[in-house]
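User: quick one, fold this
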Amino acid sequence: MAKEEKLQISEEELKVVQEQQASYQKLVEKVGVAEITKFVLLGQTHELLPKIEEHKKALEEKYGSININVADGSYTKIEKKENE
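Assistant:
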């Protein structure tokens, strides 16, 4: 059996391939971290929304239908139309 000749790209070409592969791997890792962060943030949002709704209902029971200025806590009554 004849021994196969080892073929090889140049050192410069290998360096470019290695740098490109390393850059690609770093980007893939960053995308993975971003996706995990997104998942965690979506979970936190999902947990917060029912709490917001619960507090809105408590405020509505106390004050009626209102629009709250979140900057200073002032509010205005929401006028209901007769057909509502």
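User: anything notable?
Assistant: The chain has a mean pLDDT of 94.
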